[in-house]
Each structure stands twice: as structure tokens, then as C-alpha cells.
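Protocol step 6 of 9: fold each sequence in the batch and record its C-alpha cells directly after the sequence line. For illustration, a two-sequence batch is reproduced in full.

Sequence one:
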Amino acid sequence: MFDFATEAWYGWLGLSMAGVALFGAAAGLPTAPPPDAGAAGATIDRVAAAEYPATAEHPLDATEIRLGTRRIGLRSAAGTAHATLSFGPVTPVPADGSALRDVLYGTPPERAFDSPEEFRQSIVDARAGASDASWRPVDRTLIVRRVTWEGVDVVLVDA
């Protein structure tokens, strides 16, 4: 009663096309999950919530990063992931070899800057530059450091 006519060439052609489409859709799926932006954001939040100076590192499985003052984005071949930071604003360190980068990697701010006001101004400039941050290559490790110097309290972030 509900027989499929196996002699009908258009039936076989339709079935073949459906199989090719299904294979193409399955082959286009990513083989790995997107990077874990939530875990990276949690690392930043833990350091930002600390009462005292603190430092943390978090390994990243991404190829590119976008750091903002209140968000982090990670991207790889498997996809893109974003996370909103609970504690902020944080200060993304510019990649230009600034004195803020030296402070992030352990130099005391009083040795990297001439005054707390110069330190404060470099933080303001770095945050202003982060408002239109673009994707940039990642070094595989996220570094976060909370620093306090004569009334200037900042959380520096870079990858």
C-alpha cells in the first residue's frame, strides 16, 4: 500500500543528495569545544576581588583574545566565547612594551613610574585604549596582577 518505487531514479537521486548534505553538515561541525572564557574570567575575578596584592596565571586554549575593561573574549578554530567580569573595571595592558607591562610581570610600580600620578595616568590611557580593543594573538597564558601603590589600586591583565 505504501510502497516506495525503487525503480524511480528521482527517488534515488533525492536520497543521495540528502546523504551528501548530511555528511557535509557533520563534517562542518567543530571537533573541539570553543575556548573556556568563563574560567579565564573567573581567574580575573578572583584576583580582582582580593583585598591584597595578588597574581594569577591561567592557561588558555585559544589562539586570539580580546580584552576589555569588563569583558574577555577568546577565539580559536573551534569557535568564540565571551565572559563578563563581575569585578572591574580591569586594565588590559597594552602590547607596546609600556611600563604597565613591567609592573604586570613583577616590577614594583615605584620603580617603573616616577610618581603615583604617572601610574594613574597610564592606567587611564590603557583603559581608554581597551574601549575599542581588537582581536590579537595570545601567548597561551593569561596573567592577572592586582597592584596597589599610594592610593592607586589596579588589576592588570594580559595574555
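Sequence two, same batch, same settings:
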Amino acid sequence: MAIDFQHGEYKNNIEAWKTVADICGSLSLNDYLIELNPADTSKDNALRNEQYKLRAVFYAVAGYTRRGMIGTMFQKPPIIEVPEALAYMETNCDGAGISIFQQSQAVAFEVVGKSRSGLCVSYPQSEGEASKADLLAMKVYPTIHYFKPEQIINWRYTTVGANSLLSLVVISETEEVEHDDYTVETIEVLRELALTDGVFTDSKWKKNKNGVWEVAESFAPTDGAGNFWEIIPFTFVGANDNAAQVDQPLMIDLAKINIGHFRNSADYEDSVWFSGQAQPFMTGVDANWVEVMRENKMYIGSRNLLGVPEGGTFGFASASPNPLVRQAMIDKLDLMVGLGARFIQANSAVKTATQAEGESSVQHSVLSLVAANITEAYTQCLIWSARYLNAPDTDIKYAVNQDFTNPTATAQELQAVVASWMQGAMPMSDMIAWQQKHGFVNPEKQIDEVTNELSVVDVPDLGE
């Protein structure tokens, strides 16, 4: 098996990932429009197709929805708890100045769109006391890198006893090569993460002058205690779970309907242009009368009287617009709304809390599952990073917000809750938790903080 071998599930899903990337990113849109009269290879038909595509209007519903879902997920900042040795993760988790918060948003962007991403903890090759000195000077430290699903071309599991261990991951990356004439060439590099005889090795493959893949460098990293790794510090991140199997892209159905809407839009705009071009006509005209019109400089749009011969007529012919195409666009908008699409709708009708909660429940359940998977993956990566540094990992935590509800309460409800507490029917902790949930008390405060603040305030008698 060659190093550039592509896993079967990868090949089965690469087109779907491209579709999601194109539609959500408004890229290569003309590739998704159907060619008019493909059997006609004339210049006129080529020009018509060019104008047909130029008039099409793309409504970026899928892309807006995807960005809105990420905004909802990260409306509250993630929670991170790490030992002091890993504090740098908050500002630079990948060695390039990207914080763990920013990187987790990029991972969420991939998972929400394509249901897949990957995280790997890396550590530079170093030895002995030099590595400790470099670590103290922050020259060498573990980093977390994320990968798009298109980059993870192959993977394999091996059964060891009762455990199924990830034994191979091949990742497609790029590398810039500088030449003497100031030019920069971008080449493909394959990174192989392999578990061989129970030892993890990190290898980089490049093509030689003959175009054949060969190992450029390879080493077996050791942890902070000097031990070789018996696992690959890599984890998949998915929409349903963090297993290796490929889930159907979350946005693929919405993207396909968005494509259909785009095609209807192209037909509709073409119909509007065609029917909007009024065609003047005259009846009862012969060659002599045409000459009379030219001599008297009678032409359409001159605001001068345009004469016609006796019994003749003059008028404009125009086609009726095609209502079927417009209705098809409206129907697809309804379908996209049903799939959770987000729109900015001016003057939209006010919805009850029950209606709003019902419409967003499916979307929120999907986001909650994605957030839980990202939380689990990053917590595991931080634990691996701590192992590289020989740091404690018992209290490590990274949590992405999973509560996307925006509860509201009336003054009467607040009064009823406070009255229940004052009457001894509700514990103070529950009252404070309710107020935090509904935005009356800062949710970042601990219960004890709020209790201490309340103890120095004269509580009014609600019966007054």
C-alpha cells in the first residue's frame, strides 16, 4: 500500500465535503449551474450561458446558517482549566500564535459543516537536558494542531488484546520551499503517524526528483518521563461521536437545497431578463413607409409622434414572467427553514417562546452534541500535552458551552421566585441559580459570592 493511498470512506465523502465547502463559502458557484443546450457548441450558445450565469443570484443561506451556528456555540467563552505549565495554550496552542479558543472555533466550523475534523498533539524532536532548558525558555513545547477532513486521507485501527488502537493516520499537508530567486514553491507533504511494535513514530514523506514518495524525516517522540508513546496522540472530532467512521456532513442537505435554489434563481433571472425586453412591432407597414419614417426621423423612444399607415397598428410585445420558477424558489426557502436555516427577516412576526423553542430545538440538539465532542477532544489533547511536560493532568478541563437556550422571565416570575425563597419554600442556592439562568445575576459569580453580597443588603418586605 502506497503512502498516498486513500481510505474508502475518504473517497466516498470527498465530493460531499467539497460541496459543503463551496456552497458555505460561496466558491466555484458556476460549477453548480446546469449548462443550457450542452449539445450546442456555437459561440452564440456559449455567450448565452455566460450571461445566464452572470445574471444568477446566489443566496448564501447555508453559509450564513453555518456561521450563525458557530456564533451561537461560542456566544459564551469556553472554560479552560490547566496547570501552569500549559497556561500558554490560552494564547498560543499551535505555535503560530492561535489561541485554543480560536482553534476550537475553526474545528467547530469543520464539524458543523462536514461532521469531521482531527486534532493531534505534536512535540519537536529533542533530547535530554537540552530539551528541558529549551522548555524553560519556551523554545520547545507541545502544540495542538487541527486538520480538515480533506487532509486526513487514510487511517487504520489495530486490535491489541481487548482494545482497538489507532495505529495509522496519514495527513496531507503543504510546505513552502524558498528558492534563490525569491520565489516560493508550495509542495505537498504527507505526515504519517504510525504505531509500530507498540511505539509511536512521526514521519514526514516528500516526493523525490522522480516523483516517488520517500521518508524525509522520522522520529519517535518521548514523553516528559522519557518514555516512548504507546498510542498515537491524535483524535477524530465528529458530529455524532469522535470515532473514526465518517458521519454524513451536517450541512450537505441544506447545501443541496441551496444549490437547487441557486439554479432556480438563474432560471428566474433569465426569465425576468427575457420577458422584460419589450419588442416593438408595427402592422400594415411596407418598404415605402419605412423609408418615410427614416426621412422624418421617427424612431422609438424619441417622444415624437410615430405615425403608422391607415389601418396599421403599433405596440409592444412582452412575455409574461414565469411564476413557476419563483414559486420553486419560495418552496426551497421553506425547505431550508425546515432544516434549520437562519435568515435575517425584517418585520418578522413576533413568536411565542414555545414557537421559538420548538423551531430551534433540533438545531440546538445538534450543536450540543458537537460542542460535547469538541470538549472531549480538546480535554484529551490537553492531557496528552501535560504528559509531554510531565505535568499533572488530574484537573485539566476544556469545556465548550452546550447550553444554547436564552431564557427570559417576567418581573412577576422574578417576584414569585424571591417570595418563595423568603417564605422558606425554595433554597437560596436554587433562587440564585434561577436568577443566573435568566440573566438577573452574573452567571460567572459563585453562589457564595452572591450570598455574601446579599447578606449586607437590606432585603425589602415583599408584602409592603
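Proceed to step 7 once all outputs are recorded. Observation for sequence two: The chain has twelve helices and twelve strands.
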